[in-house]
Amino acid sequence: MDVFEAIRTRRSVRKFKPDPVEEEKIAKILEAATWAPNHGLTQPWRFFVLTGEGRRPLGRLFRELRRREMADPDTPENQEILRREEEKPFKAPVVIVVAVEPKDEPGVIPQEERSAVSAAVQNMLLAAHALGLGAKWKTGKRAYHPYVARFFGLSDRAEIVGFIDVGYPREVPPPPPRDPYTVYTKWISEDLPYDRVPPLARKEETDADGEGSSPVRATVLGGGISSTADEEE
């Protein structure tokens, strides 16, 4: 599978088979993560691979954090909510907790460290897909609760970047609708103030099939703006 096919066909998988995932495949996913770009080679990623009953402590933590939000956790309705909360890590046979541990050194910018780990997560998702596995990057307020990072023995500077569910997919979702890149892209090829750069192309100015295969370039002509699509050869 080439990289462009992997990017276009990867999906966030929500339903997994109970089959265990080979350790060698998990190792390949983690190896792929460590090749993500990171400024200054700080390697700020940290991984925790949870399988089997190793997922249970995380489930108990989710339950406790949810319980603390409840006025009366003992009602039957809330007890069911808490039960479901505790079972969340068991939706996939493997959960990889990914965290950023920023280097505490002069010149290290925390945002760059987090961006590096986000790039590592994308590598993981693509690697899982290439290996015939499904994966889903999960976040939400539980991920950002400061106690969760401490739960994994990380420093006060650290953050959880995501919980990556991994397993063999029971079903693969259909591709979601995506706007073509032209909707969100400006081509700048002239020396002019950026606030005078032509606006983003409107959707109706993209190619007819909606896929954005013919780039729409906004150009300045005689002080006015016109959009022209590159002709196919």
Q: How far apart, in Å, are the first and last alpha carbons?
A: 27 Å
Report the major sheet.
Answer: 4 strands, antiparallel
Radius of gyration: 22 Å
- This entry's quaternary arrangement is single chain
The number of helical elements comes to: 7
**SSE sequence, one letter per element:** HEHEHHEHEHHEEEE
Indicate the low-confidence ranges by residue numbers: 206-233
Instruction: State the name of the first-level CATH class of the largest domain.
Output: Alpha Beta
Which structural class should the secondary elements be placed in? alpha+beta
What's the layout of helices and strands?
Blueprint: H1 3-9, E1 15-16, H2 23-33, E2 45-51, H3 56-67, H4 76-87, E3 94-100, H5 110-130, E4 134-138, H6 141-144, H7 146-151, E5 159-167, E6 169-171, E7 216-221, E8 224-229
Antiparallel strand pairs: 1-6, 2-3, 3-5, 4-5, 7-8
Cofactor: FMN
Domain Nitroreductase: 7-168
GO molecular function: oxidoreductase activity
Question: What are its keywords?
Answer:
233 residues; alpha+beta; NADH Oxidase; 2 domains; 4-stranded antiparallel sheet; two-stranded antiparallel sheet; 7 helices; 19% strand; globular; disordered C terminus; Nitroreductase; NAD; flavoprotein
Outline the structure in words:
There is one protein chain. The chain folds into two domains: 3-171, NADH Oxidase (3-Layer(aba) Sandwich), CATH 3.40.109; 181-229, no CATH class. A four-stranded antiparallel beta sheet has the order 2-3-5-4. The chain has a two-stranded antiparallel sheet with strand order 1-6. The chain has helices at residues 3-9, 23-33, 56-67, 76-87, 110-130, 141-144, 146-151, and strands at 15-16, 45-51, 94-100, 134-138, 159-167, 169-171, 216-221, 224-229. It is α+β, with helices and mostly antiparallel strands and 233 residues long. β7 and β8 form a beta hairpin. This is Nitroreductase. Its cofactor is FMN. It comes from Brockia lithotrophica. Belongs to the nitroreductase family.
